[in-house]
Write a structure and sequence with these properties.
Oligomer: heterodimer
Strand order of the largest sheet of chain A: 2-1-5-4-3-6-7
Largest interface: A-B, 67 and 58 residues
Structural class of chain A: alpha+beta
Number of strands of chain B: 19
Radius of gyration of chain A: 23 Å
Number of helices of chain B: 13
Strand order of the largest sheet of chain B: 3-2-1-4-11-12
Order of helices and strands of chain A: HEEHEEEEEHHHEEEHHEHEEHEEEEEEEH
Structural class of chain B: alpha/beta
Radius of gyration of chain B: 24 Å
Shape of chain B: globular
Helix content of chain B: 25-40%
Number of strands of chain A: 20
Chain lengths: 502, 453
Amino acid sequence: MSWEFSMARSALLHALFERLAKPASDRDLSFALLQSDGTAIHVRASSPADLASLPQAASICNQYLRLKEGDLAIVNDPASGGTSLASITLVTALALEPGFDMLLALRFRLSESWGEKGLLSEEGVRIPPTPLASKREINRDLLNAIASHPATPVGFAPAVEKYSGLLLEITQRLKTIARDPKTQLSSTSIKSYLNDSRKLIATLLHRLPLGTMNVVRRIPAAKETLKLHLEVTDDKVSFDFKGTDTSERHAITDLTALGACVWTVLALLDENVPVNAAVFEHFQISAPSNTLLNWKGAIGTERGLQTIVPAVCETVVKAFAKLNPLLDVASSAGTSALAQMEFGGVKKLTLHIAPGAGATATGEGSDALPVWGAGPGPMSPGILEAAAPIELTALGTHTGSGGKGKKLGGDGALVSFRLREAGRLSWLLGASSVKHEGHSGGRSGSAASIEIVRAGSTDAEKVDSAEGRLELAIGDEVRLYGAGGGAFGSKDDPKEETSAKS
Amino acid sequence: MHRLGLWVGDSFAEIRGKDFSRWFLPKKSLSEGIKEALRAIEDREVGGELVFASSRTESALERRQGSQPALFVTSGFESWARTARHSRRTGPVLSVERAWTPVPEDNVFGIDERISVDGKIEKPLKMEELEFLVGKLELLKVKDVALGFRHSSANPEHERQAAAYLREKGFRVSASHEMPSVGKSEAKAWTHASEAAYVESVVREDVESIRSALDAEGASSWKISAWTSRGLSNDPAAFTASGLRGGTSRAIGGGLSGGKESDRKTALIFGLEDFQIVDASTSVENAQSRTLAVQPTCQIATELWPFPVWTAVDRGFEPGPMLFGKSHQLTFLDVLFVQGRLTTAIDAFSDRIQEKSAPRILEALFTVGKHLAEPGRRIADAKTIAADLERAAIERIAIDLAVHPAKTKIALLGPLAPILAPLLAKRRPDLTFDVEAKTTFADLVLRSNGGPA
């Protein structure tokens, strides 16, 4: 054999896990496979927030509920591995071999809620680890009881049913695969897979610049500051956020923060790295309990996902860029601005207004794509119009909103619609509410904005606040513009021209 | 009445008439191959039917062989056509690239028309706007136009008017309301219309070749039928890029099931150009196919794991696998060749194999080993690497089979089926593989009446 055969087997196991997770990743859902002791085997996250928190949520569910094959648990509580109340995690178990159980977890997002006071209780129903199904039968009384709570988002029960079915289907496939002895899906091969992943990530980490770096950055569109002490050694990357501000208005859990840090490093490595316990071993985070990176108690987390997560990711990029300037990128909002429409007191539409990505030294920023957030996928006009009494007048990108420069910043999204009934607009622009800097002379992208054209008028009224609510009449037109990403390099950089001529 | 079954791929075509013939398209044209088959039928003037299936829409899209079309959309939605092509994030990345779009940004034009969600015309289509754009298209030398007007599924009137006008001006038009996906999703219908416009010239050329071959051999009276996404059709209006898309899996599905519930099958298709898994059901409309992770001309990569993996990059037959003597890119066929698997004669393929290419392939495999070897470790010999790569390919196919809700009895079809069957049978002894060596794609095209179209 030309190389250790375990590596060949591990490469194939990685392909198998990717294939297994595909039905989830195709729907922009997060998926995790882990041992019943909580050791992550494969994590396919759709956003930085889910990367470290999803395996933890699954593990906590199992600790409390001792899941058996055919059982399903549900959880969204940030105290039990959740990120925000709009992110629902489903967990099930599979007995792979006697004494070796696996857990499978799926996370999906429902329509987000946020309140004026910034409290968790304003953001939905808090669900601790709860048994949802036994022998593949969902407890519908329980499901309906949660669904009937006034704070539960519309569509909760159908979404839980749908994704429970998907998770059980993936579990069944894994069971079928495990029955094939030649797949060698066993506790031994998984141990070997984790060992090989350990070697692989250790090799990849050598590409990172070594050293320590301190970065202090203000969270865009917020008053608070993040303080990061980054330390990169041969086999460990440590993120120490001691000195970071506290907040009474927004926070994220320490696992969300860890996920954001690890996600950013993996993005800098730019490889399809297998994400599992072996990878997490190489990362360490210190998020002191009095900071906004270590959520406790009553504070809401939805604003944190919109503003703190992208700020953490960008702070990590900046710290690495100080060690190696080639790793730098222009800034971007990173997460989508949110807008919602209520008609007759019922929330009918949630729109994610995607920002443009920041450009890099080698590439332009992508249009309308949240680099540091969950992407709900492209908006389909037919679906939006079916969901609420609106008529779309424009959908696409806000041309020219990306920063100008040698490499252009990505344009933000554009959604424009006219109301067919009176309704109420609420919005949370978050990190998108401010301009995001260009790099090396590149211009900033424009901030997200909202315009209202009242029925019968041609004048557009600009909405100034980063969040708020507005009553609208039939025939009013709403125009939502996503933030542009920053550009990289100046178009007229004399140094560039000289080097081009020479 | 005579019947000919024709299968048109990207590089190979097959015909079943009096005899069976497969040929390599870069060496013998589609038209010439059909003419030869017709000449073998002495009384062809009595009439007959030519039934065909073509995978050219899919392959020309995959290999970017079309021509740049224009896209007319409802104004306000010009950039949506592009952003709807969301490239799903494959993991943590700093910049996400969108999926390739067949219409360049500069060729998307907004049309100031509006139809409401319930199909009411709110802003009529102005023909003068189209007249102006026609001049622009002529300057750009654009021949194919896709139409994506809002709510065309509720009321296609504007698309019909625009299509009639543009067709009269000599353009080929693919309108979203004519796409099979219409009514399901506007994004899909617009994308399909754009893709159809992109490859329309390629597909039309094939259809014209078929017609001209019949005319040239005194078979003008022959009926032409084609496998379409909806089943078998003899309506020439369906012989377009969008109409023929998905027709090959319908042909396989229809041909395998033969219309009998008891004969429902799962089939692995090991063609020279594509490997697929197909679930054939009684209704051809329900035939499902999925491309396997390993393809005959897919490339290998060695970026992440210290073990080569098969990638989704499909090199096709231009310039071909290394065993044809021209290419420098290793493919799965090259691995099978140096493993000594390609010993059975395969029409139109075996005679193209250059035996002298073996050392070059082994050298390329050795280079892969050199790239992967850790410092201080002995570099593996090329034969070992070939064996590992073959095993990895079979494992990937086994994964595809494992996640597929397959039956325990699986039909294996295609010219490479007899070669891969023993390898698969060894890997999955719990399954029964029936190699239908004598059933060609051209036979499947003829076998079923196709159901509704």
